[in-house]
Amino acid sequence: MKKVTLLLILFYVNLSFSQQKDYEVFNTAINSKFAELGTTFLKNNTLIFASSKKIDDDKNFLKDRRKNNGQSFLEFYTGIVNDKGDIIETGKFTNEIKNKFFEADITFSPDLKTVYFTWNNFYSIESKEDIEKWKTLRIVKATLNENFETSDITFLPFNSETYSVRSPIVSNNGKKLFFVSDMPGGYGESDIYFVDIHTDGTYGKPVNLGPNINSAYDEQYPTLDANETLYFSTIGRSGKGGLDIFKSEFKNGEYQKAENLPEPINSKFDEFGFVYNNATDSGFFTSNRKDGIGNVDIYAFVPKELLCKQDFAFNFVDEKTKKEIDNLNITLTNSDNQIVEVLSDKNNLAYKTQLKCNLTYKLIVEKEHYRPFETFITTNNTLNNKISETYNLTPLDCNQVVEITILFEDNNKMVDNCTVLIVDNKGSVLTQPVDETHKISFKADCNTSYNVIANATNYLQSEIAFSTDSAYNTQFKKEITLTKKSCNQTITGVITNTNKLPITANVSLFIDGKLIEKQVTNNFNFKVNCNATYVILAEADNYQQSEILIKTGANANIVNNASLELQPKICNQVVEVNVNTNTTDFELNNVTVALYSNNVLMEQKNINNSNTVSFNLNCNTSYKIIATATNFENNEISFKTDTENNFKINKSITLTAKKCQQKIELLVFNKLTNQQIKNTKVSIYSNNMLLEEKYIANNNALIFDVACNTSYKIIGEAENFESEQLEFNTDLTFDSSTTKQLYLNPKPCIQTLTLSIFNKETKEALQGAKVTIFKNNEILNSHLLANETTSNLELNCDTNYNLKVELEKFDTQFFEFQTTNIYNSELNKIIYLTPSVEYVTLGGQKLINTNNIYFDLDKADIRNDAAIELNKVVSYLINHPTIKIEVKSHTDSRAPDNYNLKLSDRRAKSVINYIISKGIDASRVTGKGYGETQLLNECSNGVKCTEAQHQLNRRTEFVIIE
């Protein structure tokens, strides 16, 4: 068997491999004179493979290649599988400078976020002593990012320095990891194992797949399909020769006896790295068989029944000239828009290929100066059918660029409103403005005649003509010269009456008594020559005519102002206008009356106390009067005067009041806290009819639109609050805004505390406990759990309580409890009571059982640790109300006798005061200090003792006296 360093890329597929069909095996297009091996699909029909071919595009990368361990250097590449089952290379798999996957088997988790691979170049081999280190192979795990770059590399826990683990493969569900190892206890030189991958990232123990898979020789290169069928290579079973590929189906929870894959998959040479795509009933494997191109090659296998092919020949001609076209870029893609083939035949002008039967292809053709061409080709099921097609390609329009420079005979550098009009012989017209460079450019069709016409203010129009040729992208440069026009000026003016208001008139322009131009307007504009004298005459009905003399100067583009004022003719009349209203609810305020003629405002007056105004009018004239007032709709009348001089006209205008509306801004508050309430529903009524509902989501105000002079009622509702209502009336003030406040009473907030009581040592539920509830050191309630183990207590929300739990033969438990601010919340608390060991007998005396009590040096203050023990004494006295005790405080002998006697007496009194402060009657507690008079050992004055012996004498005793 050839010794070949193999990198297997594992592929997860959907169905099982069938050995019943006839397959055709062929050498894939990616193979070279170097080694190509191993394939795996990343997604759809995209795969990666390994190759030892040398790429010199990264000097640093080549510098890091290992040269001293006898292993082949491999890199990963990507490819796609076309519809012929072949592989088309698309580039490198990863751009990592120091590829972590050198010479390593590799497998991915189903989500492509985790990779496992064999690491055999972890050590740098610099000497013969290091050679043995890299021979032990290990599997490592790493995290992958979207660019397939690794991080967080860790070794798996079942690696060893005494044997190798390699060739990892993850199961389809990601829950098992298969691998090859020569660990002790196997069936041969190396066996196939698996471990469970736990959800917490740990692994199970390695499990051997057993004799159905493993033999006395090496089993190598495992892969799995979607049905968990196992494929591997070995020489340990009957085969064709060298490494053969075997498979074992997974049935009834175990792998069946391995079976040899038939020819043409296996041969007398080495076959390994088998991957199978059940969806297409095809796949790939690696072999060193004799017909290969390199050291080892990747071979494809496809069912022969899918190899039906047809011969296609394509010819392409110019749509206009019908001449054949060469040097085309022709691409065939499949239904997934993936490239199947790129065609080329520059000599015979015919492009030939073979296509599979019963498939649809897209033909894409590209050539300079032609429109891209696409069409679909659908083959039938006739084997070896020969088809020839001719297609027309549409030539692109031939274009050239023309640059036009505008020249001015007076060398003017700043010319306004210069434009160029471009007209071709097809009737197409293009207009372009000219900027300060005096140049324009445009795309022109080939073989086309053009006229270019230039215009500019105060210059004469000029044009040129030319024709383009047949050359693509040629550039032409042309020039046009503009000649200066003669001198011109402008006369403008406004025609007004004596009130300075514009009026429309017949305006005539004369020179030397000859009429030049007439305009009907109130704002005239005449174009005139320089150095000339003109007369402008204005005429209007009911006005006296007026004229003005204008002399123009020598400079062009001068604007002459010649406004005229027309005096009205003598005939006059008077109109008296009375303004009233149809309602008594609102008074007329700020009333204005305006007089118009021909839609021009003639005069405007404010109304007087009698609601009457008057205007002087011209005779035989049409008028319009418009009356306006605050909070009223405008109204108008129209009429025409006659020819009677000094005639008086009476007119009346009635104004209708606008709809009166106001706005109410509502804020809702907690009546107890004066804080705004969120999540409030507010309803507004009028005459007991609901008009609108709104909700306050945050601490915002609600805005209601209401009518004037109307009664309303507002009702506010919020969770855990009593609903309240607010009634009010609006007045007659237009567009006023009023703020209202609505106060809601909160409902009482109650919570239920379920108290469960257990024995701290046995965890058993306890009955008969007494629970006392305190608030601010005052008893609120007491509960006796006679035959119950739990107590349900109703407590106010957001309140701090103290609870005391008492039970005979158990230490009394005190604790604080804070309720929340959530209505009707149910709370739970478990209390563990410690059984009391109430007393011990020592020296014929009954003592309450406590740990020793310690004081600071030369002090009698009760420390926190001492208070814990004293609370046990208090609990005992509470549970035994008839018991009386004597407190006896003792010291050791290491200070003067009298000092120790006084110190112990102060400490005894301090203890007595503490017990009394906890509610114990003073008549039940007596005591004093005994100094060193009652030592428990021989450690008296002058006797050398250990610290532990002295500590035995420093004690406080609680003697039960009755």
TrEMBL record:
SUPFAM superfamilies referenced in this protein's UniProt entry, alphabetically: DPP6 N-terminal domain-like, OmpA-like
Subcellular location: Cell outer membrane
Protein name listed in UniProt: Outer membrane protein OmpA
Keywords, alphabetical: Cell outer membrane, Membrane
PANTHER family the record matches: LIPOPROTEIN YIAD-RELATED, STATOR ELEMENT OF FLAGELLAR MOTOR COMPLEX
One Pfam family matching this protein: PD40
Every OmpA-like domain range: 843-962
Cross-referenced InterPro entries: Bact_OuterMem_StrucFunc, OMP_bac, OmpA-like, OmpA-like_sf, WD40
Cited CDD domains: OmpA_C-like
Gene3D superfamilies per record: OmpA-like domain
Chief location bin: membrane
Cleavable signal peptide: none
GO CC aspect terms: cell outer membrane
